[in-house]
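tl;dr need the bound structure. longer version: we got a ligand (iron/sulfur cluster) that a collaborator sent over and nobodys looked at where it sits. i said id run it. heres the input, straight from their email, havent touched it
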Amino acid sequence: MNTIQSPASDTFEFTDEQPRLKVQESEYLRLLGYPRDHALDARPRELADWAQRWYAENGRPWVFARAAGRLKTATGKVYLSGAEFVSDRLHEQFVAAEAHDAMLVAVSAGKECEEKARQCWQEGKPDEYFFLEMYGSAVVEHLVTHAAGRICAWAEQNSMAVLPHYSPGYSGWPVSDQPKLWNIIRGNNGTPFPAQLDVMESGMLRPKKSLLTVFGLTRHPEKVQPGSRLIPCENCSLPGCQYRRAPYRYFMPQSESVSLQQNEIAAPSIPVAPVLDKMARYSLNARALRKWSQERLQLETANDGSINARFRYEGTTCSNLGRSIEYNYHVRLQPRAQAYRIAEAHCAPAEGDTGYTFMCEYLKDPTGFMNLVNAEKPLIGRPLNDVLAWKRSINPAGCHCEAGSREHKWGMVFEVIHFALAQKGAS
Ligand code: SF4
């Protein structure tokens, strides 16, 4: 390990050339498309063990992190180290948490596993290719949690709190901002990086099993409360963290989701597990699923196999005379070969609907409330099938005022889409 570290906020920096690698089996299984507690059969077990062993002997992972300094925000924009980034989502998060700085982080699983995976593909070994590719992705996710662990420990000791990490290529931040972010991560202080990382104009990273990301920092830990979406722990799988504020619930999209947007080599569609569980146990009853999938859902398949779904939600406000509300939920899924990962998710009042303006939270703060609802994109980057394991609030209130009721509605929308696709034999 090679580390330069200072407790001062603006000079905190570390490089780790030999991060401790402990990829959790459940995380690897998730990336392979299996349920988290699935027991692998003999052949997949052999492949998974081979990929892990190969990486332990040949992989060269690394982590670099440093404080950005000079954080500023303007409408829809964030300035880090003097560079301008246009992202409503990042801006909202930083403003809501009163962030004063951010940690810039680069991680990579190294070029070795990518080269070996390519070799397997060229040698006609698609199974080995797939398992090693997914292991590389699991390493990148592990490195991000490793970096989070160090940043959170440092922040706690300095009376700060850390926000969920965010990267170009995630919803609401163009992937084409990668070169700019890489420029400021590298900075001009001459810090040598453990290995070469190239960032293309398109935003593509080489090695592709790498990630550039930003963790906001705030001196207001009270802003980072469980359930507020500003708490990073819900997206962090680090086991045994003494600073954890909330249980791990869902991961942030990382290298895989971003690289898919970069039109990198498409993963072969090896059916290692059903993409949609046909024996799914939904939280909604079968009658509601059938009725809503027929009456409220529209599905369109694009030429590239991605799926656009639109769900019409109808409810009423809990107070203010029970006004009716009509909302449209839009979801875009990546093609089946990419496990129907949720690429986009947003909701908005239907055209002509005025009922939403009578929701209590809207009446208190119209712009802030609509921004909050707009910013929530649960399960983004995850396979649609993950809705079955998503532990979410049960709050069937008709309005959107409470976080739990919004989460409940997203769960309902994803379940109806899952049901409709499984019924169509798309699993
Ligand atoms: S569990 Fe929470 S506090 Fe611990 S490293 Fe992860 S994000 Fe930070």
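gonna send this back to them w/ a short note. Residues 1-8, 255-272 have pLDDT under 50 and may be disordered.
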